[in-house]
Amino acid sequence: MVGIRRLLCGLFAVSAVTGMAGVVAASPPAGAAKLTKPVSVILLAETKGESVNAVEYYDNGAKLAATELGAKKVSYSRIPAPLVPAQAQTALLQAIDQHPDALIGFPATSQTIPLAATIAQAQVPFFSLASALQVIHGVPGAPVNLNQIRPLGVDIAAAEARYAVNDLKAKKVGLLCVQNATGVDGCNAPGRS
């Protein structure tokens, strides 16, 4: 079970960083300036040893993705973000002060929801590790710069897989899921897509 959790968290973080690098560093429109510096990505999450709930997999996966993409494309760093919202707010403000191109963060909904207004004010693309239904695009007050990575249900996960295969012509699709109350449905998606 621990090995599977480690693999899924690592894959999740890798997909988050590679997805962000693609979004932020996509080919500029004609006449626009070319990317001259690496995309700066900051992870807001604790790692093993910083708290009893922390795992190293988000950091390990993000480091792996940044290494695979190369230092010329991605500059990666991490700021520990404790589960207590006030302490997570401090970490978020530290990250914003560094003027990153993108943020990955907050493994817990208890961090994301109370800090939604600060995330919105930052106007930096923010890729949430949590499944906070209250801050999904279209929900009143949801930050427009906050992106959900995790499929929140079987229908969404299946639709994402179909889009990747049918529209993007992907030959292989990896779905990430968690075995908890808000994420378990996504684990059932492969049978429906």
Textual characterization of the structure:
Helices cover 40% and strands 11% of the residues. With 193 residues, it is α/β, with parallel strands linked by helices. The protein folds into 2 domains: 8-14 and 38-149, 3-Layer(aba) Sandwich (Rossmann fold); 150-193, no CATH class. A 5-stranded parallel β-sheet has the order 2-1-3-4-5. β1, α2 and β2 (74-79) form a beta-alpha-beta unit.
Largest sheet strand order: 2-1-3-4-5
Radius of gyration, whole Å: 16 Å
**Basic shape:** globular
Classified by CATH, the class of the largest domain is Alpha Beta
Tell me the CATH superfamily of the largest domain: Response regulator
Q: Largest beta sheet, briefly?
A: 5 strands, parallel
Q: Oligomeric status of the shown chains?
A: single chain
- For the termini, the CA-CA separation is 25 Å
Task: Supply database-style keywords.
single chain; Rossmann fold; 193 residues; disordered N terminus; alpha/beta; five-stranded parallel β-sheet
